[in-house]
Task: structure prediction
Amino acid sequence: MSCKPPSVPPSSEKSSESTTSASTNSEKSTASVHDTDYRQSLSFRDIFIERENAPQGLTRRAWNIMTRARQDPDLNDATVQKVIDMSRGLQDAAEAIIMHQLAPIIIPAMFRIPDKRLAMNCGQQWLNSVPVPLRSSVLHDPLPLPQPKPDLVFGYSEAAFTRNQLDTIGLLTDDQSGGNYAAPDQKVRFPFLQVEFKSQAYNGTHYVAKNHAAGAGAIALNGQMDLIHRRCASKTWDCDMPRYFSISMDHRTAAINVHWLKAQAGGGQYSFHTEELSIYSLRDPVRIRSLFRVIKNILDYGAQKRLPSLCSLLDEYRQKVIRGRAAANAQKTQPGK
Result:
């Protein structure tokens, strides 16, 4: 799927990106990513942004994924200079212009998916997502978080799974919300890379982009954790395994984040965390090439390393469901039942 540039009025930018003071609950139905108290709304769900250092094991694995040596061609000098020139020329541009003119050079997968097992969606609200629950100690009723609407998100296509696995994904639903843990936008399954674009000219910030990404990342991680727990309720989560990355980008810089889970002492609900790993200047040829390679490496990691473990979990959960249904049917057919 390619992204078609939307019509952008000269003075519009995903509503105003300016930081606002907190609005009263009576004025809105969901918390706003632009409000100064939005991160408090996240914290009610144990979602945190750069609150504490990520585990060293997770950071090391994330860097190993991002910096893996590649054999395919790097960006040539002319293309790198084009990025620099566009970076200068887009200082006054709106978010959608940055997304559709600058980003495709650095993220060619926007228009040419490198692996048929991968899928991408563009600007689609996660209407089928399962909200991250409130922390059990929260007794009041805070505003719900908005449903994410990533500018770009990468995950898995139908071709990544067998028919049995696709049918099993259909079981990963939440009774209360009706959403699906694996397919929050009903197209991309098990999302693992999100990109948010911002315009400095329209007061867009990496701060707000992280707000967007933290909510979506928590939903995606919660969905993966749900599958692990369905497969085996006692199975522990490997908190050092990177499972979700996000990128925020404006005309001048890009920042890459890793999203991770922390197990609470004594068990109970996990907390969700976002940690910035690196910043890339779009005026620096070395950093431009590095960013290009990092994005390709994350996509390769998703297809080659992360996907097989998800498929195994789906197969194991399917067998558990089949055994459970067979046992239930056998019990029903016993005399006197």
